[in-house]
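Same chain as my last thread, 96 residues:
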Amino acid sequence: MTDHTNIASSQLEASGRVKVSRSGAIAWIVLDNVRKHNAISLEMWRSLTEALASFETDSDVRCVVIRGEGDQAFCAGADIVQNQGSTACKPWRTRK
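reply #2:
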């Protein structure tokens, strides 16, 4: 990657971040939450959505590569520890 222009980034280090860059016609999205095997926090979901929306409207982008930071995991899924208070993460039997 030669052009490492940071387009969007969530600033909450404790809950991970999404690093976005471009190299010519290739856009790079890096899920950076290594401590939690790149689990995606709510802030990261928002940043990921924003980045993908910006690339969708950019006719110069021909390919988007999404990868996880580090060498342990691509992505463990949603950060369920962060979302414990959310009803979306509760089993259906406990919902009222």
